[in-house]
User: Fold Cilia- and flagella-associated protein 300 from Paralvinella palmiformis.
Amino acid sequence: MNAEPDLDMAGHEAKFTFQCLEGRKFPSIQSKDAQELLLKWYTFNDGKLPIFGSAFFQDPQVIYNLRVVSDSGKLSTLGIKASRAVADVVSCSVLNMGFFDRLYDNNVVRESGKIVKCFDEYWEDLTISDELRKMLLMEDSDNYDLYNDTERDEFLFRIFRHLCLGGAVCQYEDEVQPYLDMTKQLYKDLIAVQKDGSTSEIHITSIVLKASASGDGGQFYPSEREHIQDFCYLIIDPLKRHVNVLYHRFGASQFES
Assistant:
């Protein structure tokens, strides 16, 4: 999706509109020099974020192009204009997969990569049969404190947790590496980064929002209920003015981005 602010006759910002892009590229802004200049000249104003979610879910292009999935796995477009939307900022600052190294040092994952098993426990609709998922979900786990609340809010941690927990009918992995590999690949695809020309340091330029939309009958997106595996993230690239959407509905058979 391409996001552009509209201006009224007085030149004041009025609203956002969205246009669905079909493989469009922007060579003029993709060179290293151009990217450094754009990062210097333009930043996404955080003051716009409270209205961004509402604008997104009320835009005709979003309504008729954003795909959703039913519990049976049938795909359709959103088709409903939201009367209310919530878009909360999600921290996105981790640049290294070393973030997950501590899993190997605390009886969650063995040195070989095998995930340590445990007796089955149940959390909402999920069966917890190993120490990894127990650490991800259950506060009474001996390993829950491996990651503090700030770290658990990180977008990278959230992706990893969503992948590990899976869907309603999930064939869990016995080894952690497939989860780590998929987390890395998905994070890399979704997040925009910029290299500082003077220090050569890499910085994340994307802004991540956890979003939901409601109508007169209550919340309808990402689903009608609140569940840890029902989620929608809007990942904003402020330089290209693009929005990536990462969406999942628990119990369905589709994972959309």
